[in-house]
Write a structure and sequence with these properties.
The protein is an alpha/beta fold. Helix content is 42%, strand content 16%. A 7-stranded parallel sheet has the order 3-2-1-4-5-6-7, sandwiched between helices. Helix 5 links the parallel strand 5 and strand 6. Bound molecules: NADP nicotinamide-adenine-dinucleotide phosphate. NADP nicotinamide-adenine-dinucleotide phosphate binds next to helix 1.
């Protein structure tokens, strides 16, 4: 693909949750399409590994250690990424967390943490990225929800609430951004073969995150391919919402 046909070439992407699972697959896939990538996650060690993978595609990587629950510092990270890699063309909010348990068991502290990581952080990052995208006259924001953002289930009240709320956030951002060439998509994946459910970087390293049957869980690389397609597609069509599940998804429909 020539640089005229590939709008990602030599632009900057920001990907949260870039050390594992979907976020890592997206960071690598966008790098393979010649975007420079700022990677956000908590684990310094895993960030370095993911950054090395990004750089192996001949682009620049900017690993940025951040706990997304600390939402006050996130806007500065976007501005740092913009000054080191260039104004972002793509923001993918892939990081997510959960504190499983019934609503009766869930502490307010745990509720607040899930809300901060899954909802407030995507808002703060989008708010900081949009002025840069507006100046570019183009941009793509992808908020990773879940089929749990379309149907609530037991023992996941905070998780489901935040994933539902990403729909409202995405629609508002899309309405505000479209006049400036900014496209916003909320993506609802079904089960993916990742380390989801571990939530601790050290434990995650010990798990395989693999499924033997891709009819029962999606390979995150397939979801990443879709995001890369959105980022390289001509500016007019917009995938506002996408539900992508494995053939034998239990949670949807
Ligand atoms: N896997 C599934 O079946 C599935 C299905 C539907 C939707 N999803 C959604 O897909 C997204 C990606 O999940 P995944 O399956 O790829 O999970 P994963 O393999 O566990 O990866 C989660 C990523 O989020 C980062 N992260 C978690 N808490 C963070 C925090 N407080 N601050 C910064 N980064 C944080 C992790 O990095 P560190 O630990 O280094 O911080 C890691 O890079 C999530 O939003 C999830 O809700 C997953």
């Amino acid at each position: 693909m020539s640089s005229a046909e590939n709008p990602l070439r030599d632009t900057a992407a920001i990907v949260t949750g870039a050390t594992s699972g979907l976020g890592r697959a997206v960071a690598t896939r966008l790098a393979s399409a010649q975007a420079h990538v700022a990677l956000l996650a908590r684990s310094e060690r895993d960030l370095q590994t993911a950054a090395d993978e990004v750089q192996s595609h001949g682009v620049r990587a900017l690993p940025m250690k951040a706990d997304l629950a600390d939402t006050a510092s996130l806007g500065e990270l976007v501005n740092r990424a913009a000054s080191e890699l260039g104004p972002p063309s793509v923001l993918v909010n892939a990081a997510g967390t959960d504190v499983p348990g019934s609503a009766e068991e869930l502490s307010l502290e745990d509720w607040d943490r899930v809300v901060a990581v899954n909802l407030t952080a995507p808002f703060v990052l989008a708010r900081a990225a949009m002025p840069h995208m507006r100046k570019r006259g183009a941009g793509l924001i992808v908020n990773i929800s879940s089929v749990a953002g379309r149907r609530g289930w037991a023992n996941a009240s905070a998780y489901c609430s935040t994933k539902f709320a990403l729909t409202g956030l995405s629609q508002s951002l899309a309405a505000e951004g479209r006049g400036y060439g900014i496209r916003v998509c909320v993506l609802y994946p079904g089960a993916m073969s990742t380390s989801w459910g571990t939530f601790d970087p050290a434990q995650r390293r010990a798990s395989t995150g693999q499924s033997s049957d891709d009819r029962e869980s999606l390979n995150p690389a397939v979801v990443a391919d879709l995001i890369a397609w959105m980022a390289t597609a001509p500016g007019e069509p917009v995938l506002n919402e996408v539900t992508m599940t494995p053939l034998r998804e239990g949670g949807w429909p």
